[in-house]
Design a protein that fits this description.
The complex is a heterodimer. Chain A is about 75% helix and about 0% strand. Chain A has 5 helices and no strands. By secondary structure, chain A is mainly alpha-helical. Chain A has one domain. Chain B has a single domain, classed as lambda repressor-like DNA-binding domains (434 Repressor (Amino-terminal Domain), Orthogonal Bundle). Chain B contains 6 helices and 2 strands; from the N terminus they run βαααααβα. A two-stranded antiparallel sheet of chain B has the order 1-2. Chain B is mostly helical. In chain B, α2 packs across α3. Chain B is globular and about 35 Å long. The chains are: A mainly alpha, B mainly alpha. Chains A and B meet through loops of A and α3 of B.
């Protein structure tokens, strides 16, 4: 890669590194804020899942279980952001074609696939949990695969493949460096 | 068969120092040293061509194919 291209990658990486750092601060802070002001409580669940027949009072344990399930996807999203920050940090320092970059790209891709899968499973689990207290016949088992889940799954697959390709590119570059 | 680099011999014959050759062909002394000791996976045609030009020799004067046992000796 010539100096001009490396410079361009470094410049963009600097901006994206800062954006990831900001997101890593803002996202948890926003999550804490919504919990503190009560937006993460029972009323919020009642309105979000209003399409389903829910019990009049959702037990606290169920609310906590639902939030714990949602937290898995949230923590995974933070993990992806953290990995992206690491990747842009490497790019920022001019380390572009290295095994460390390939490993980080692979981890991003795999985590994105996991977000897609969890997005699909979590809705099923949450609706089942919320309607479990209903009388027989009013309990709901839903399977929804949203555009977002599909996007995460396909995007994650693409990035995973790019990670594998990068690993091969690094191997070839290392081999090339052994030539005089 | 193994490929042995005879660059030392040609440098001695031409009374040229490694540093001068490295500067003339545009590679680092470190890389030239690695090449002389045979600790490289390969040599690019471009580098070989420049060495031949600088030392006024043929690739066969620099590279030699020898039996594996001869190399171990």
């Amino acid at each position: 890669m010539n100096e001009m291209h490396v410079g361009r990658v470094q410049r963009l990486a600097r901006v994206l590194h800062a954006a990831c750092t900001l997101a890593l601060i803002v996202m948890p802070a926003f999550a804490i804020y919504t919990t503190v002001i009560g937006e993460a409580g029972e009323a919020n669940l009642q309105s979000t899942y209003a399409d389903y027949v829910l019990p009049e009072v959702i037990p606290v344990e169920t609310v906590l279980a639902v939030r714990a399930i949602q937290m898995i996807g949230f923590v995974l999203t933070l993990y992806i952001l953290w990995q992206m920050r690491n990747l842009f940090g490497l790019y920022k320092r001019g380390e572009i074609l290295s095994s460390r970059c390939a490993a980080v790209i692979l981890r991003c891709g795999q985590a994105l696939i996991a977000v897609g899968i969890i997005g699909f499973l979590s809705n099923t689990l949450i609706v089942l949990l919320l309607t479990l207290m209903n009388e027989a016949g009013q309990r709901t088992l839903v399977f929804t695969f949203s555009d977002g889940d599909a996007g995460f799954f396909l995007g994650g697959g693409l990035i995973t493949v790019i990670g594998w390709v990068m690993r091969e590119a690094v191997r070839i570059a290392d081999e090339n460096r052994a030539f005089v | 068969m193994d490929i042995v680099v005879r660059l030392d011999v040609m440098l001695a014959l031409r009374k040229m120092k490694s540093r001068e050759l490295a500067a003339e062909i545009g590679i680092s002394e470190q890389n030239l040293s690695l090449l002389k000791s045979g600790k490289v996976k390969g040599i690019r045609f471009e580098t070989l061509s420049r060495i031949c030009e600088a030392l006024d020799c043929q690739p066969g004067d620099i590279l030699e194919a020898v039996e594996h046992r001869d190399v171990e000796k």
